Amino acid sequence: MRAGGQRTARDRAGSPLSVRNVTRGTWLMSAGKRAGDVWARVRGLIGSRPLQPGEGLWIVPCSGIHMLFMSYPIDALYLDRELHVVAVDHALRPWTLGRMVRGAHSVLELPAGSVAPTGTDVGDQLAIEPVEC
C-alpha cells in the first residue's frame, strides 16, 4: 500500500487496471489485467482473443517476452521498477522472439498500433492504478 493506506495495483492484483502516461497526459489502458504469478506470466496472452482498445496485460516481474503460440501482434512497453519506459516494441509479430531488456522489471502488452498515437517513448513515466468499480 501507499502511504496513507491507499491501495496500489500490486495490492489488488485481481482488479482491472488503468495505465496513464503521466509525461504525455495520455491513456494507454483502461481495462487491463495483471499477470503476477508464475503461470499467468508464462501464459501471458497465449490463447486469448485479440486485445481490444483499452485492454492489455501487465506482466510483473518480467524483462522480456516471446510471441510463440500467439495469433495476433501486440505493442510492448518495458518498464523499470518506478514505471519509467525503458524500451518500446511496436507490432511484435506472432511466432517471434522478443528481446530481453536490461533494467526492465515489468512489461505492458497492448493492442498493436496503440502506443504510437499516444507518443509514448523511452523515459516516459507511467501510472498504473486499479479501476474503481
Give a verbal description of the structure:
It is a single chain. β1 (17-21) and β2 form a beta hairpin. 35% of the residues are buried. Residues 1-12 have low confidence and may be disordered. The chain has one domain (27-130): Sandwich (Jelly Rolls), CATH 2.60.120.1140. The chain is built from one helix and nine strands. By secondary structure, it is mainly beta.
What is the radius of gyration?
Answer: 14 Å
Could you give the order of strands across the largest sheet? Answer: 6-5-8-3-2-1-9
Give a short account of the largest sheet.
Answer: 7 strands, mixed
CATH superfamily: Protein of unknown function DUF192
Structural class of the helices, strands and pairings? Answer: mainly beta
Under CATH, the topology can be stated as Jelly Rolls
The domain tally reads 1
Based on CA inertia axes, which overall geometry fits? globular
CATH class: Mainly Beta
| Contiguous runs where pLDDT drops below 50 for at least 5 residues | 1-12
Strand content: 35-45%
- Give the helix proportion (percent range): under 10%
In CATH, the architecture is: Sandwich
Oligomer: single chain
- First and last CA, distance: 19 Å
> How many beta-strand runs?
9
Overall mean confidence score, pLDDT: 90
